[in-house]
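Here's what a typical entry looks like (Cysteine synthase):
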Amino acid sequence: MSNHILDLIGNTPLVESKVLNTNPNVKLLFKLEGQNPGGSVKDRPALNMIKSGMERGEITHTTKLIEATSGNTGIALAMIAGIFGLDIELVMPENSTKERMQTMRAYGAKVTLTPSDVGIEGARDYAEAKVNNDGYKMLNQFANNDNWKAHYKTTGPEIWRDTHEKITHFVSSMGTTGTIMGTSTFLKEQNPEIQIVGVQPTDESRIPGIRKWPKEYLPKIFNPKKVDTIMEVSQKEAESMARLLAEEEGIFAGVSSGGAAAVALRLANTMETGTIVSIVCDRGDRYLSSELFD
């Protein structure tokens, strides 16, 4: 039995694909990050960024926190800031799903919406201005080493342990790139031959949680040397796979998870043998007000 809700962050299950993967010589495993208490993989870095900042004295109960988010990080930060008694303002594009906004507010956070035509970059610019002009502190998941270190300390070791050290390929969508950076760092230390595969959207696609960043917005924590291959996925393919995950595998997840799964299945179809782990980064109930599951 856990004594605290935060004890439930991490140690998420690996579930083997029994329908979509048709290669009998390849094991495809989905890591179900929606099982975290805040409902996504972002619980891990949110906890590490806040807790580490408090331990260093950079965050106190008088600190005015602010963060730009496309959704999942904001929900995780709202939950964890509330638990620690911290005030936080979360900034997101106005076309974000209603479920995400409502969940952040339910946890007690202030939510500020920025114009959808400037995307997450506009939300980041707004947060930067509040830091520069109004005395706010930004956790800055895009440049905060506590982001990727959360996955180095937890996600990577869990995958290594739960695959019995047999993982050959790791597939992750890339947004802030914290998940892929931290997990890659750990797994490569165990076995440099493990292939790290990043997933980005095609140029015309808009997939929540996956980005192909303009150079000036590229996350500072991103190190291209830690990714062996980058594969692209279309919005249509990612959405179709999200629906198939629910219908065929019983895994209810969002679009970025569908994108990673689509790439993982592409890999599985070309491999002779191996073990693939694909990150399912959140739950599908965050997309019910969108057209994804219509």
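DSSP finds eight helices and ten strands in the chain.

More examples are in the samples folder.
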